[in-house]
């Protein structure tokens, strides 16, 4: 159900390579599920996977979107992502510049 007053959100995810991150980010922007995908290449992640301590280089992706797009974004990200269990963490935006937030919400609207 669409919200009458959507709020800005930042979604965190990672991909295994810069190419995979670029492909994912571009698709989500083209589909207007996110206004912007910021790629931060070569972060190092340390985690447990299948009872083994792992360490791997990844690309962090910051996805700027609205609260009303979250459900569709999560579903689409799961479809497109190269990982079986992709990171999907949502951070509420408590404050942002008015002009930037206007651009963000306008970028999520269907193209005319």
From TrEMBL:
Single GO MF annotation: copper ion binding
InterPro entries reported for this sequence: Ion_tolerance_CutA (IPR004323), N-reg_PII-like_a/b (IPR011322), N-reg_PII/ATP_PRibTrfase_C (IPR015867)
Alphabetized Pfam families for the sequence: CutA1
Alphabetical GO biological process terms: response to metal ion
SUPFAM superfamilies named in the record: GlnB-like
UniProt similarity note: Belongs to the CutA family.
Protein known as: Divalent-cation tolerance protein CutA
Organism: Telmatobacter sp. DSM 110680
Gene that produces this protein: cutA
